[in-house]
Amino acid sequence: MDTGDRLLTPGEVAALFRVDPKTVTRWAAAGRIGSIRTPGGHRRFRESEVRALLEGEGMLDEGEDVANRPRNVGPTASTGPGPANAGMY
Amino acid sequence: MDTGDRLLTPGEVAALFRVDPKTVTRWAAAGRIGSIRTPGGHRRFRESEVRALLEGEGMLDEGEDVANRPRNVGPTASTGPGPANAGMY
DNA sequence: ACTTATTTGGGTAATTGGGGGT
DNA sequence: TCTGTCCCAATTACCCAAATAA
């Protein structure tokens, strides 16, 4: 079902992360952040995901381990993003 | 299965996509989204189609496990859950 | 027939996408 | 390797006034 969260524009996400909108676009292109495309081709980002990314950035452990490369995402397509946000407006 | 042909107004679709209602009208005019015209000339959109568009390409494995987040995404993971977007310009 | 909110139409500025190079 | 900036083309957002929907 629908996640039901608001969508953010690239500029909004860029402002939240204090980066250039192009950088946000690269994150989406690289698959580091989920993105929804409008029929026109522009991207929209889920606010819950962006906020989770923002909150999680203060993590510990910076082990740069190249040996750990999960090159393949399993077919376990978890459609719904974990948090069941019941924020319907 | 239930198609759910509820009709949505341009304002509803615009809110779902986080765009301007005028943009939704342009999508309909460009044939990117199906639309039904009222006798007065206003457009209505099918909820099932809108939802399919929203979830059709916004699906990415969203593991919010930043602690275990591999910074280097491996090589070309051809396991793309979604088909290559066929709407680029 | 009324009012209120939304949609329509055209035109112009701002944002976005993709590629390239620092 | 990652990010910021350049280009151009396409898409999108906001301005107006009139018509439609409920």
Automatic annotation (TrEMBL), chains A, B:
Name this polypeptide is given: Excisionase family DNA binding protein
Highest taxon in the source lineage: Bacteria
Start and end residues of each Helix-turn-helix domain: 7-56
GO molecular function, one term: DNA binding
A Pfam entry, by short name: HTH_17
